UniProtKB/TrEMBL annotation:
Xref: Pfam families: Aldedh
Protein name: NAD-dependent succinate-semialdehyde dehydrogenase
UniProt keyword list: Oxidoreductase
Domain Aldehyde dehydrogenase intervals: 14-472
SUPFAM superfamilies, A to Z: ALDH-like
A Gene Ontology biological process term: gamma-aminobutyric acid catabolic process
Gene3D superfamilies given in the database record: Aldehyde Dehydrogenase, Chain A, domain 1 (3.40.605.10), Aldehyde Dehydrogenase, Chain A, domain 2 (3.40.309.10)
Domain of life: Bacteria
Organism listed in the record: Noviherbaspirillum saxi
InterPro entries for this protein: Ald_DH/histidinol_DH, Ald_DH_C, Ald_DH_N, Aldehyde_DH_dom, Aldehyde_DH_Superfamily
GO molecular function, one term: succinate-semialdehyde dehydrogenase (NAD+) activity
Stretches assigned to coiled coil: none
Length: 475
């Protein structure tokens, strides 16, 4: 499979760029143009809305067992094409092929799981006097407007499509403009597996234009967004004008607490891999490292050594451990955050610069002794930057970890059972990894607290977020 021509999917038809505004799609490893992306105009959005309205009526009446069959076939479609689809995703997003393959398998599992879980959207019957009853039933909420970002171009669309479709909703998805073909592949998997026309529509364009148009339509009953906290707040305002439900997966700034009694080798190998996965462009990426004094110097030195040894390159090439940033905007963000931290007195342990070659490559970077007022201590870097600070006591570490308005992921490393229990209770985050960085699984709720958003994806919570509860009392 070659990199495809980009098309929207509106009311059962693939719609290309002819006669529409468009923008180039770039390969982040080379900077070269690889495709042209069509922008949806008002007529396209109107058609997608009408299609979603009709698609919902059809799909809500389709038994959950039949919906599950479509989602399972779509999962198998993707698994059968793992190498081809992974090449397409890596070409447009940059991450190493090995990472893309894992993402694809997780995306397939997600589709299959939502189909299965949709079969278990059970209600209940409440005890009432003979001859009367109260039923509690779960129904799909209605057409969903979903916005997926570019960092997991297969995984994000699969989560949003899987939840809505598994619950019996229709969905209009706006995938990322920077990595649009991956979502097309997930869409193809569903279409070729028998998804009826109207259940899924896919549009691209200027994000603000599309979200304003869709969220103001009375057709849309729910917003699902993954992206930055700033954009999330803006979209919540739009959604509140019509009072619709929202699932918001927003920014993070994950703290990592490494205690003196931690298995340091385990902490190093897991956190180095996790920090530089997807060039740090991960909402749950470990970012603020708080290291207890007794192991601080050793941890910083060894982490930096391993970071600087990572092979950075084109994700399609054998041996690449870290690819480019997904788009040039991130390079400017790295430069400004690192310059600010150094001006504030932080020590640059390794990296800190753009790599001098075509494409958007940034060196794996470690900053130590970073003052609390440096911007990188509060702003999500969303890039390959780890910041390290020492701490003395448990309470001090928790205070620092919980200092920010974010609460998405948090990590801790310790071999003390008591400390492990206390840290799990004390950290303010929606997802906590203790002696592990593996916090994402299809049956585990994925979402944040505080300004990192609300509502979960995956798990029974992800399905529930696309359902409404209704009670029917009869005497
Ligand atoms: P951005 O804030 O401009 O965009 C983030 C995402 O939101 C993109 O996918 C974009 O298409 C979408 N978006 C932006 N404005 C929108 C609007 N008005 N309506 C609908 N969608 C809109 O930033 P960016 O430069 O693309 O990414 C960098 C920042 O985004 C990071 O700092 C990070 O906080 C955040 N981000 C978070 C995640 C995540 O998984 N939570 C993923 C990608 C980006």
């Amino acid at each position: 499979m070659d990199y495809p021509q980009i098309a929207m999917y509106i009311d059962g038809e693939w719609v290309g760029a002819e006669g529409r505004d468009s923008q180039p799609v770039l390969n982040p490893a080379t900077g070269e143009q690889i495709a042209v992306l069509p922008h949806a105009g008002q007529a396209d959005l109107e058609r997608a809305l009408e299609s979603a309205r009709r698609g919902f009526l059809l799909w809500r009446a389709t038994p959950a067992q039949e919906r599950a069959v479509v989602l399972r076939r779509a999962a198998d479609w993707l698994r059968a094409r793992v190498d081809d689809v992974a090449r397409i995703a890596t070409t447009e997003q940059g991450k190493p092929l090995a990472e893309t393959r894992i993402e694809l398998m997780a995306a397939a599992d997600c589709l299959e799981w939502y189909g299965e879980e949709g079969r278990r959207a059970y209600g209940r019957v409440l005890p009432r006097p003979p001859g009367s009853r109260t039923l509690v039933v779960k129904e799909p909420i209605g057409p969903v407007a979903a916005f997926a970002p570019w960092n997991f171009p297969l995984g994000n669309p699969a989560r949003k499509l899987g939840a809505a479709i598994g619950a019996g909703c229709s969905v209009i998805l706006k995938p990322p403009e920077e990595a649009p073909a991956s979502a097309m592949m997930v869409a193809r998997a569903l279409i070729e597996s028998g998804l009826p026309v109207g259940v899924m529509n896919i549009v691209y364009g200027v994000p603000d234009t599309i979200s304003r148009y869709l969220l103001r339509s009375p057709v849309i009953r729910k917003l699902s967004f993954t992206g930055s906290t700033a954009v999330g707040k803006h979209l919540m305002n739009l959604a509140s004008e019509r009072g619709i439900r929202t699932t918001m997966e927003l920014g993070g700034h994950a703290p990592v607490l490494v205690f003196d009694d931690a298995d340091i080798e385990q902490a190093l190998s897991l956190t180095v891999a996790s920090k530089y996965r997807n060039a740090g462009q991960v909402c749950v990426s470990p970012t603020r490292f708080y290291i207890q004094e007794g192991v601080y110097e050793r941890f910083v030195a060894e982490f930096s050594r391993r970071a600087s040894a990572l092979q950075v390159g084109n994700g399609l090439h054998e041996g690449t451990r870290m690819g480019p940033m997904a788009h040039p905007r991130r390079l400017g963000a790295m430069e400004s955050l690192i310059a600010d931290a150094r001006a504030a007195g932080a020590k640059l342990e390794t990296g800190g610069e753009q790599i001098d070659r075509a494409g958007y490559f940034w060196q794996p970077t470690v900053l130590s002794d970073v003052p609390i007022h440096a911007r990188v201590m509060s702003e999500e870097p969303f890039g390959p930057v780890a910041v390290m600070s020492p701490f003395k006591t448990f309470d001090e570490a928790i205070e620092q970890a919980n200092r920010l308005p974010f609460g998405l992921a948090a990590y801790a490393f310790s071999t003390s059972a008591k400390q492990v229990m206390m840290v799990g209770d004390a950290l303010e985050a929606g997802m906590i990894g203790i002696n592990t960085t593996m916090i994402g699984a299809v049956d585990a709720p994925f979402g944040g607290v505080k300004e990192s958003g609300h509502g979960s994806e995956n798990a029974i919570e992800g399905l529930e977020a696309c359902l409404v509860t209704k009670q029917i009392s009869q005497a």
